[in-house]
Inverse folding.
């Protein structure tokens, strides 16, 4: 498991030790502990059974040569599947595309989301309308939105393709297609980013901003020197969620290009190896590698977070 | 010459209009496509020249779509119910009770919220075939409720922290056990938060595509987003564009209804979970 789980486990153990250290637990406290554990148990059992066990099984599968067409011939091959994936240009191509899409879309979303949050925060009228409108991209099924974009950019069907010079088919060119995938991703997830930032914006004390105004700070100075530093925790949480979410991108690419012309993400590569090539061993190795990438990204963010990680909050109680 | 106030209002009007157009134009396009006659489907017009229900009649005549719609509704409702029940129990404990291992639970939910679903697809595919639940409702309900549990726990524990402590204490002073305090005092106060969480979890389950195409192979459990990707035209030379657009609009309707009715709750739920817990 990832480092954050280990540290949580360590602190959990420390808490338990502290509990034992207390001379006598009152009957009420003991009852409370029992109820607490009892209430959490079903959720914990489900989460462990459906994620921890399968990921361990995925590691096991990734060490086998396992072709779904010949399940009887599955056998142990050690790390050779990882060797095959890591020495394959397809993996590095997919990883590069995934990282590119993640970095660009999250960066654009942060700027657009901040603008949208400011609009929702400061709007003189029509706040309800704007919030309702931006919830549509958040709530809409990704595949539905992806089909809308796909038809819009398909020459002969789409209104957007009609705006382009004749003969161009943007979804069949690698760079243009990646740009359109990013556009679809940004459209869908900017509202979510904006709502998280809006919540952070609401926590910025109004007096502080007004004081800066009285001192003669203009809008940009107030934003850069007062509002943004105070919003840092909210911004980091939003960035963490969106970065990990963008790294898993699958639906938009599946519908827009199907991963053709080198536009596939690592998730698309894993899916293709499983269900097109029917290679469970290689597919599982890719699954495990994606899991490790996500763990590394999460670890880096939590290192930056420090105490402001969402998991650290309950201490305040 | 407009007054300062008039200019401000006009400015905000324009800004609001831009935001609304931004949010709605891809939605409008798929709606427009779904109402186009097959002969005008590829004209690229932003507004259909002639409006027709033909595409909707078409998809509702095939069991391929109606079956998928039933699957989508059934699976999302069951997964949401289970996730909200388990999440409510865990979130109550996190928000109100002192017990060992609380941080472990929080850490684990956070970890699962970040988990890449593709990493689970290959092992679940194999495990579900062995257990005989591949291509069944249970085969999708299980991953859906698991991945929505962290969302449920975070959102609910944030809501639960806002409920006044004193009422629970008062109940305990009156002789209620912690379980009675939970059932008779806190649960009714928590109902709005539970309802909001239910909507968020439902949207999450309704939205899934990866598990739906990976863990199903027939129409037995395939949900609408996955079924759309397998739509074929009525003949080999016909594109299924109209059917896909109509099906897409049908599954967008519940989302739009939720958003219109519960805008405030959804915003509160999304931000409560992410910022406070």
């Amino acid at each position: 498991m990832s480092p954050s789980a280990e540290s949580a486990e360590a602190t959990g153990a420390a808490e338990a030790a502290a509990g034992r250290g207390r001379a006598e637990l009152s009957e009420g406290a003991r009852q409370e502990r029992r109820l607490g554990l009892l209430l959490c148990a079903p959720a914990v059992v489900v989460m462990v059974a459906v994620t921890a066990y399968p990921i361990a099984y995925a590691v096991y599968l990734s060490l086998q040569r396992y072709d779904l067409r010949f399940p009887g011939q599955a056998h142990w091959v050690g790390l050779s599947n990882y060797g095959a994936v890591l020495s394959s240009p397809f993996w590095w191509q997919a990883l590069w595309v995934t990282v590119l899409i993640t970095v660009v879309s999250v960066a654009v979303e942060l700027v657009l989301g901040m603008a949208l949050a400011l609009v929702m925060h400061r709007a003189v009228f029509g706040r309800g309308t704007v919030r309702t409108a931006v919830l549509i991209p958040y709530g809409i099924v990704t595949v539905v939105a992806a089909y809308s974009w796909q038809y819009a950019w398909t020459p002969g069907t789409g209104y957007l393709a009609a705006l382009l010079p004749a003969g161009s088919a943007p979804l069949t060119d690698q760079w243009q297609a990646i740009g359109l995938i990013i556009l679809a991703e940004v459209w869908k997830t900017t509202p979510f980013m904006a709502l998280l930032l809006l919540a952070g914006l609401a926590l910025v004390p109004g007096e502080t901003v007004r004081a800066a105004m009285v001192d003669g700070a203009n809008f940009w100075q107030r934003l850069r020197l007062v509002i943004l530093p105070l919003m840092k925790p909210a911004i980091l949480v939003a960035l963490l969620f969106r970065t990990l979410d963008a790294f898993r991108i699958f639906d938009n690419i599946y519908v827009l290009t199907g991963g053709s012309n080198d536009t596939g993400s690592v998730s698309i590569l894993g899916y293709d190896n499983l269900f097109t090539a029917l290679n469970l061993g290689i597919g599982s190795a890719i699954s495990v590698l994606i899991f490790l990438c996500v763990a590394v990204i999460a670890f880096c963010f939590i290192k930056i977070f420090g105490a402001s990680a969402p998991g650290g909050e309950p201490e305040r109680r | 010459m407009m007054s300062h106030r008039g200019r401000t209002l006009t400015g905000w009007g324009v800004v609001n209009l831009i935001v609304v157009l931004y949010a709605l134009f891809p939605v409008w396009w798929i709606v427009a496509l779904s109402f186009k006659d097959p002969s005008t489907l590829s004209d690229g017009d932003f507004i259909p020249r002639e409006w027709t229900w033909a595409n909707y009649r078409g998809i509702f005549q095939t069991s391929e779509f109606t079956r998928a719609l039933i699957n989508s509704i059934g699976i999302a409702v069951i997964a949401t119910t289970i996730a909200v029940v388990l999440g409510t129990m865990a979130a109550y404990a996190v928000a109100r009770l002192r017990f060992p291992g609380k941080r472990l639970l929080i850490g684990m939910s956070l970890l699962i919220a970040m988990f890449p679903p593709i990493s689970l697809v290959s092992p679940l595919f194999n495990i579900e075939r062995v257990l005989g639940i591949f291509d069944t409702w249970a085969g999708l309900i299980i991953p859906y409720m698991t991945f929505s549990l962290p969302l449920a726990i975070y959102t609910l524990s944030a809501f639960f922290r806002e409920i006044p402590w004193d009422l629970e204490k008062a109940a305990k002073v009156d002789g209620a056990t912690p379980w009675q305090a939970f059932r008779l005092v806190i649960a009714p106060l928590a109902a709005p938060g539970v309802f909001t969480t239910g909507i968020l979890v439902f949207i999450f389950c309704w939205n899934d595509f990866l598990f739906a195409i990976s863990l199903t192979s027939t129409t037995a459990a395939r949900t609408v987003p996955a079924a759309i990707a397998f739509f074929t035209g009525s003949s080999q030379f016909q594109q299924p564009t109209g059917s896909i657009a109509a099906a897409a609009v049908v599954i967008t309707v519940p989302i739009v209804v939720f958003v219109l009715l519960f805008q405030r709750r959804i915003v509160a739920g999304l931000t409560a979970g992410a910022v406070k817990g």
